[in-house]
Amino acid sequence: MDAHAVLDVGCGTGSMVRRARELGHRGRLVGLDPDLAALDGARRRTDVEWVDGVAADAAWDREFDLATMTGNAFQCLVSDEDLADSLAAVRRALRDGGRFVFDTRNPQMREWEEWNPSNATEVVDGTGRTFRVSHHVESVIGDVVTLTETTSTPDGTVLRVDRASLRFLDVPALGTFLNGAGFEVEAHDSGGHHGPVSGAGRSIGTIARRV
């Protein structure tokens, strides 16, 4: 990572910036997230700045060379207003020519059609505990999918149910929002390959530059 100062928006537990530090990044690393529980765990690492807030709350002014949103966090920006406010804040936080790099699910893949309880998966946390995670789609309205995620023990005891709405934007729509916010799209990446995004790749990686 060549950027001296990096802002990770929607950092969660901070895995990306923690990994960057472990790999030898010597500059400034900042993680921003509204999930206090996730940040509490992240703060065990004291050589990274951890800030509570959403993207639109970012108040930095031309302090970063690179801003990132990983894990499809960009899709949590559901309304046009939230997208505009968040992109404006990210742009303001970047120095001239700074880059914003993020990933989103490819709407051409219609991945939400696979989100049903029969496709539950098992995950193992950092302590070795196994959980069962399943999804149920409540609605698909335009490009917004609303769903619930249920986390349970392997024997079926429900531990928590989370509800979320995710926005699935295609490449032209992403470009419209980014250009309107003062970014120039430098590249899109589909399935690990630079070039036109096709239905074959599950994700769309975007690199945009502040202009």
Automatic annotation (TrEMBL):
One of its GO terms (molecular function) is methyltransferase activity. Pfam families: Methyltransf_25. The keyword Cell cycle does not apply. SUPFAM superfamilies: S-adenosyl-L-methionine-dependent methyltransferases. Keywords: Methyltransferase, Transferase. The keyword Cell cycle does not apply. Residues 6-98 form the Methyltransferase domain. GO terms for biological process: methylation. InterPro entries: Methyltransf_25 (IPR041698), SAM-dependent_MTases_sf (IPR029063). PANTHER family: TRANS-ACONITATE 2-METHYLTRANSFERASE-RELATED. This is Class I SAM-dependent methyltransferase. It comes from Nonomuraea diastatica. The lineage of its organism: Bacteria, Bacillati, Actinomycetota, Actinomycetes, Streptosporangiales.
